[in-house]
Design goal:
This protein is 34% helix and 28% strand. It is an alpha+beta fold.
Length: 178
């Protein structure tokens, strides 16, 4: 497994895509249809809450698999990498976690209403806001309200992977769900 490496933001997606292409995605059993895996990425999660100047923000890379035998869900694989953003936010440090796709759960899916879709499209705006936090944000500030609503929605629709990462970010999860 490659060692953790700082990668400039402009190159991060390409590095993760290369890592994904090299993962062992396994074989479907002979009596089953194949699962069509693709990479998925979480929003940022802080390693400490409230955040401080040295807080590390983490984005998880995991797998979502379309299984033709499941009509109302997708298979979820454990995180295969994490990207850490430290003091200098112009680069992420990619930390490989495994060399293979490790399915563990089925995540139900349902249509998103227009309001939730619009909120999910603010992912980059929320990331920028998070990376600039040096202390607990004012709970009534418009950006904080939007941030909290974004994370509440993401957690609602991504409960399987959220359960895996929650132990490392429990204080943040509690704050989001207050």
């Amino acid at each position: 497994m490659p060692s953790p490496t700082p990668v400039p933001l402009a190159e991060l997606a390409a590095h993760l895509e290369t890592m994904w292409d090299q993962l062992d995605q396994g074989q479907a059993p002979k009596d089953s249809l194949p699962i069509f895996w693709q990479p998925a990425y979480s929003p940022l999660f802080p390693t400490a809450w409230p955040p401080g100047p040295d807080t590390i923000w983490v984005r998880y890379a995991y797998g979502q698999g379309q299984d033709m035998s499941i009509t109302d869900g997708v298979r979820i694989a454990k995180p295969w990498a994490r990207v850490e953003f430290r003091g200098d936010k112009s680069a992420g440090i990619i930390i490989p976690l495994t060399q293979k796709v490790e399915p563990f759960e089925v995540q139900g899916v349902s249509p998103l209403d227009a309001e939730t879709q619009a909120l999910m499209q603010k992912s980059e705006q929320i990331s920028t806001y998070c990376l600039n936090l040096k202390e607990a944000p004012s709970p009534d500030a418009p950006n904080t309200v939007t941030m909290r609503r974004f994370y509440q929605s993401w957690l609602k629709y991504n409960g399987a992977i959220a359960a895996v990462i929650k132990p490392d970010h429990s204080a943040f999860f509690e704050w989001v769900n207050q």
